[in-house]
Amino acid sequence: MSSFITKFALVAALALPASSFAVVSAHAQEAVVKAPDVEALFTSPDPKLNANKQVTYKIIRDLLEAGHWDKADQYLTERYLQHNPNAASGRDGVIKFFTEVLKVEKKPIPDKIGSPVAFVTAEGDLVTVGFVHEVKDPKDPARTYTTTWFDTWRFVDGKADEHWDSALKGQ
Predict the structure, then answer these.
(1) What are 2-36's pLDDT values in tens digits?
(2) Cα(first)–Cα(last) distance of the chain, in Å?
(3) Residue 110: phi, psi to the nearest 5?
(4) pTM for this model (two decimals)
(5) HSE-CB for 124 with a 13 A CA cutoff
(6) In the sheet that 159-165 helps form, which strands lie side by side, from edge to edge?
(7) Residue 57 and residue 129 in contact, taking contact as beta carbons nearer than 8 Å
């Protein structure tokens, strides 16, 4: 079905007059904004989804924001498959990436996460977090715009076992 949608979109785009594209680029995007109640996004009435969302919250708060990689065994499986092009797979590989390559300093764990989260989606054994990401406009470095960056984790037995994100090499 997705190849049908892709072909349909391509055919529809090719049918548009060239002037249509100029109109689209003249309009500003809608800003990506932080959700008003981030903590509520990490809950679910479904017990399994709620548990996975809660571990995701702790991964963000305790590991990624506070640098407490000594707690990684509480949240990540030993095999932890990594689809980020900068970090090795395995819990030890991701710990080494953050502590030795990025040299993340440990700081007190806050009550709440500080990252600007736009949405959290959980389905089956997956949890995806969409973050507000502000970047400099390459055409005008004095201006910025927002876009969405994401992390997705697959859970096995209550721990993150696999991870995807939007990182590029060297970032």
Answers:
(1) 443 333 333 334 444 444 444 444 445 799 999 99
(2) 34
(3) -75, 165
(4) 0.81
(5) 4
(6) 76-82, 159-165, 140-156, 126-137, 117-123
(7) no
